[in-house]
Amino acid sequence: MKKYVLLFLSIGLSITSCKKNNDDNVLVPNADVTVQNFMWKAMNLWYFWQSDVANLSDTKFPNTPEGNTAYNDFLTTESDPGAFYDNQLLFTEDRFSFYNEDYKELTQSLAGISKSNGLEFGLVRFSGSDDVFGYVQYIIPNSDAATKAIARGDIFTGVDGTTLTVNNYIDLLFGDNDTYTLNMANIANGTITPNSDEVILTKQESLAEDPIFIDKIFEINGEKIGYLMYNQFTNEYDEALNDVFGAFKAGAITSLVLDLRYNPGGSVNTARLLSSMIYGANTQDVFLKARYNLKYQTYLEDNNVELRDFFADKTGAGTTLNSLDLSKVYILTTNGTASASELVINGLAPYLDVVQIGETTRGKNEFSVTMVDDKGNDYIYNPQRIANINPDNIWAIQPLIGRNENAAGFSDYTAGLVPDIVLAEDLENLGILGDQNEPLLARAIQDITGVTGKMDFTVGMPAKPLTSTKMFTPIKDNMFVDKPAGVNFK
Question: Measuring CA to CA, which of 61, 68, 214, 362 is 20 to 30 A from 208?
Answer without folding.
Answer: 362
